[in-house]
Amino acid sequence: MDQNNFDMPNVAHFFEGVEKLLEICFDESSSPNGDLRNITRGEWENLLCHVKCEIISYIKNDSIDAFLLSESSMFVSKRRWILKTCGTTTPLKCLEQLLQLAKLEGYHVISDIFYSRKNFTRPEIQMSPHEGFFEEVTYLDTIFPEGRSYCLGSINLECWYLYTFSKPELKALPHLIVEEKSTDADPDQTIEILMQDLDKDIMSAFTKSKFTTGREVTAYSGIDKILPEMHIDDFLFDPCGYSMNGIRENGEYMTIHITPEEKFSYVSFESNVALNNYTKLISQVIKTFKPGKFIVTIFANKSSLAYETMKELEIEYSTLSNWRRTDMQCCNFPSYNLLFAQYSRALEKVL
């Protein structure tokens, strides 16, 4: 979250914290010896030029490479690539180059494609092809003509957009095939918590006026306690803003990005940690940042611990007295279940 152009006294200053999340997973059978981690840093930097962001830090282990970017994060494992960018970045513009780089690794078969984001606070400042979801879908359809698009939530208030696949064949790309997943696929899950109207005192910590390094604010805020045993790479921007990636040897990751300014505060949390119930994790994240409202999305395939337990969130989290669930939707895709839930602070009763 590159805040270098921020002019704090300028009341017109605005930064779009809402991120665009793009994830592609390639099928291992098409290239048993392929590995996206063989792609060089120079090639990644060239690809990210199309996105309008750059690499600022990097950590890795035997399972996953994690890049902190000037606007959010990129994760690379053997056959999965995840790009999450905020501000006015243009991640879809790097798609064709990514597919070509993957092809050089022998990956000709795509097993999953996801593009998602919350509705922008100020969509009018975005650049093509991200000026609206219809434009994004139109652009994606030129590359993946069998894609499907969805909107969850209230389209005239708060919503979350998703583009993915529901059919196997990619007719416009004869060298690429989207393959249907079998039920014995490796467990896979992702949880996102997207928070707005954050606590002002908590957000004040994520500024250079209070701390000088990311490590200091990570410890002070309790971010390092959310998912212990993560190897953390963090960065505190000047004059404000914060990003972190955390990785474990088993390939699990977490990432947090913070836009702390009071008028448009935004925090995102994402992880693929495998849990059979996410209620405790959600509560810990919410307690750490104290938002006024938040959205939760959970993807889980049929092999995941979370697949059969997502409905527990509907029962358990809705019983918390200080939160009101304003929306909840569940979708069943061929290989995944998706849960979308939206919460706001319950208003105190007026006597």
Characteristics of this structure?
eight-stranded antiparallel sheet, 7 helices, 351 residues, nine-stranded mixed sheet, alpha+beta
Work out the helix count.
Answer: 7
The computed structural class is: alpha+beta
Query: Which H/E pattern describes the elements?
Result: EHEEEEHEHEEEEHHEEEEHEHEE
Q: List low-pLDDT spans.
A: 3-11, 169-175
Helix content: 10-25%
Tell me about the biggest sheet?
9 strands, mixed
Total number of beta strands: 17
Rg value: 19 Å
Average pLDDT rating: 87
Form type: globular
Note the beta-strand portion: 25-35%
Distance between the termini: 44 Å
Description:
This protein is an alpha+beta fold and 351 residues long. Helix content is 17%, strand content 34%. The strands form two sheets. Strands 1, 2, 3, 4, 5, 6, 7, 8 and 9 form a nine-stranded mixed sheet that branches. The longest helix is centred in the middle third of the chain and has 11 residues. It is globular. The protein starts with 19 loop residues before the first strand and ends in a 6-residue tail after the last strand. The relative contact order is 0.15.
